[in-house]
Amino acid sequence: MISSFFGKTKPINYIVLSVFLVLFYGLFQILQIHGSERNLSIPLEVLTLGTLILTIFVINQIIKTEKVTEFSSYAMLFFVLLLVAFSNIIQDKNAIFASFFLLLAIWRLLAVRSIKNVKHKIFDASFLICVASLFYDWAIVFLILVFVVINVYDRKTVKNWIVPFMAIFTVFVLTFGITRLFGISEFYQMNYRFSFGFLEDGVFTQKGVLLSLIYLSLVGAMASLVFLQVRRKGGGRLVPLRILFLAFILGAIFCFLTQNGTATILITFFPAAVFLTNFLETIKRPRIKELVLAACIVLPILLFVQSLNQ
Prior knowledge:
Blueprint: H1 2-6, H2 11-33, H3 42-66, H4 74-85, H5 93-110, H6 118-133, H7 143-153, H8 158-181, H9 187-191, H10 209-233, H11 238-257, H12 261-264, H13 269-281, H14 286-309
Helix pairs in contact: 2-3, 2-4, 3-4, 3-5, 4-13, 4-14, 5-6, 6-8, 10-11, 10-13, 11-13
């Protein structure tokens, strides 16, 4: 029943997941406000929720256009379930906005496969990564992914290697002008500190770090199984999945570089959702697939309830 509903991509799937996300987001905020003196900024909360809903839509479009999985709603479902499992992420607005811009950048990089308008796509991806770094400085490491994609698809065109630096310069000029206009002269010193979160005392005893390590390990193991299956079948999905796996690795590194790593793990959710979907697609028996999906739905809810009791 669950697999038959999310095994297709229809507007109703997007609507159901969006409504669930709105209800979950609202419930989380109500529970956070209850018993605390924290005040909510309604415009900011609406913008954040809108960004999350838009993220689901973008994921659906990536699946539809880049074909990194079979055409289904599983990737959207897994993304939402990961949000529920790591519910504290919602409190970090910077992580949500940075993740959204990095998702758009990854989409542009996956689109380079068509070898059409390569320089435009590289510029867009580099520009979006630089914008994401305005929210979290270490997001700039995703520029590595840009150069890897250039090397894979169109390394002989010299201009392609120059384009990312043009995007960096463009973002610098724009932010420099805006910060000067508003009198924020120390913006770059304040924003780009590049501190190493994993060097801080007690970082591995922080709440949620153990869960993050288990999650990253499980997804890594599933990705290995997916690669074995994809190599056997072929179909041109191997290279895009390698790019997504590199994005997942960079996201995992990003988590431990930042001081608030348990929130920035959100950046790994899209690659993880893709690999979880591909893994689910390898299960041929309907009953087993239903049991796996049911477990994937129940476990995040239990983790969410447990987080409320802590």
